[in-house]
């Protein structure tokens, strides 16, 4: 059941008006951590299909018995994304363990298998969480918590819905931050107007480069001419993401990978945080109380942008997000917030 934890509500600073400024400024300029910079130790895990996943562990390691927080990053993200470092700083401050498994192709090194990652990659999420749980058990660690950001949050909730009651064997609580739970609505939103000119171009620049590298590694994987012609994420997903991961096309991918239809099936405490002014996630597409199960808590502040939530005097800081979401997760696991 949902936990009785209430965070201090988020209020955007007056000098950060509007969704785009809240989104872009937070990612590029806001303070991410209090104290020294974040240091990671990298570990490579071999996957069942002969590939690998790179995991970054926060240094120093926590004391025995401390809770662990696993973060699943967003589209083209990494352990160095602004939100990942903000959560890492919070975990260090509270004495928690913290780790970021990189989705394939996002750790800075080309993967071996002819696949990448996608918003509904719940099989990969489940395998990773089982590996973390086994590692924790061997080390005598405390509760395992998980947070997913944007794409990573949809994949995490998709896993929780698919796993049902069995999810509790791996994690005590999960949270999703600014996740496009209706993937078709999100794809349409990011392909329009200013979103298309700014965010779509930014994502496609790195995604197309990685796709071309994979094509060189696996000739015939997809049509290179169609890749050159792709001007939005729908076209890219229809050509690359969907067929590489077993979907018939972008529409099939968005329908089958969206987490919104399985929110009622989640059986572990789950927090779903979405700002109403998120430029990637239309407010009309967000789940309502009647569309989720009794284990799911919805936080939907008016402001925040897409993984923004910056506060304080310029240049601002990103402390509200990890403290609010992390505090909820600890409460859900029976710990002190």
Explain what you see.
There is one protein chain. The protein is α/β, with parallel strands linked by helices and 337 residues long. It has helices at 19-28, 82-94, 122-139, 151-163, 183-190, 193-217, 224-229, 233-244, 250-257, 320-332; strands spanning 39-46, 52-59, 68-72, 97-101, 144-149, 173-177, 270-273, 296-299. It folds into two domains: 19-182 and 258-332, Alpha/Beta hydrolase fold, catalytic domain (Rossmann fold, 3-Layer(aba) Sandwich), CATH 3.40.50; 187-257, no CATH class. 37% of the residues lie in helices and 13% in strands. Strands 1-2-4-3-5-6-7-8 form an eight-stranded mixed beta sheet, sandwiched between helices. Helix 3 (122-139) crosses helix 4. The longest helix is centred in the middle third of the chain and has 25 residues, at 193-217.
Brief characterization of the structure:
With 337 residues, this protein is an alpha/beta fold. 37% of the residues lie in helices and 13% in strands.
């Amino acid at each position: 059941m949902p936990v009785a934890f209430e965070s201090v509500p988020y209020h955007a600073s007056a000098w950060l008006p509007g969704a785009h400024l809240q989104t872009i400024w937070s990612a590029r300029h806001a303070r991410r951590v209090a104290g020294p910079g974040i240091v990671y130790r990298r570990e490579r895990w071999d996957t069942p299909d002969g590939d690998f996943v790179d995991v970054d562990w926060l240094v120093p390691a926590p004391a025995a018995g401390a809770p662990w927080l696993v973060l699943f990053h967003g589209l083209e993200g990494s352990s160095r994304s602004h939100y990942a470092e903000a959560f890492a700083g919070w975990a260090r401050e509270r004495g928690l363990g913290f780790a970021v498994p990189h989705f394939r192709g996002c750790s800075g090194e080309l993967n071996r298998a002819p696949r990448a990652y996608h918003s509904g990659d719940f099989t990969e999420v489940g395998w990773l969480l089982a590996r973390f749980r086994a590692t924790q058990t061997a080390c005598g660690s405390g509760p395992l918590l998980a947070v997913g950001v944007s794409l990573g949050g949809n994949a995490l909730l998709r896993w929780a819905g698919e796993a049902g009651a069995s999810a509790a064997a791996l994690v005590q609580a999960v949270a999703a931050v600014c996740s496009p739970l209706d993937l078709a609505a999100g794809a349409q939103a990011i392909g329009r107007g200013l979103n298309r000119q700014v965010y779509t171009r930014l994502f496609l620049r790195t995604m197309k480069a990685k796709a071309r590298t994979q094509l060189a590694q696996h000739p015939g994987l997809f049509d290179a001419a169609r890749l050159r012609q792709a001007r939005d994420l729908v076209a890219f997903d229809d050509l690359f993401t969907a067929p590489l991961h077993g979907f018939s096309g972008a529409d099939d991918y968005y329908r089958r990978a969206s987490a919104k239809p399985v929110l009622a099936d989640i059986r572990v405490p789950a927090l779903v945080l979405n700002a109403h002014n998120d430029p990637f996630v239309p407010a009309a597409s967000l789940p309502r109380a009647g569309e989720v199960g009794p284990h799911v808590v919805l936080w939907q502040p008016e402001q925040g942008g897409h993984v923004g939530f910056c506060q304080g005097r310029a240049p601002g800081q990103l402390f509200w997000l990890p403290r609010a979401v992390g505090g909820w997760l600890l409460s859900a696991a029976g710990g002190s917030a």
